[in-house]
Design a protein that fits this description.
By secondary structure, this protein is of the alpha+beta class. It has two domains: 1-40; 42-94, IHF-like DNA-binding proteins (HU Protein, Chain A, Irregular), CATH 4.10.520.10. It is 44% helix and 29% strand. The chain has three helices and five strands. The strands form two sheets. The protein has a three-stranded antiparallel beta sheet. A two-stranded antiparallel ribbon has the order 3-4. The two termini are 16 Å apart.
Length: 94
């Protein structure tokens, strides 16, 4: 099963007794803070969970899979996630 934003909102509302709209606002603010931080190129570290990092990928040679033609792929920024050791242990122990 995939954990969706709606599932997270419902879980927060139930666990804390929040009305659903308050839980929605909380999740949206949290995600917006993460997005803004990543847009500025800074890393996001959540203790005991993991780290979101922005990495620069250089321009590189690629291939169009439909036509097989060679092409140059533009440089870009990507977000990567590395889980913490504690999270890795919990995932592997269950």
């Amino acid at each position: 099963m995939t954990l969706t934003k709606a599932n997270i909102i419902d879980a927060i509302a139930e666990a804390n007794g929040f009305p659903r709209n308050k839980a929605t606002e909380t999740v949206e603010i949290f995600l917006e803070i993460i997005k803004k931080t990543l847009i500025f190129g800074e890393d996001v570290l959540v203790s005991s969970y993991g780290k979101f990092c922005v990495k620069e990928k250089a321009e590189r040679k690629g291939r169009n899979p439909a036509t097989g033609d060679d092409m140059m792929l533009a440089s870009r920024r990507v977000v990567t996630f590395t889980c913490s050791g504690k999270l890795r242990e919990r995932v592997n122990s269950e």
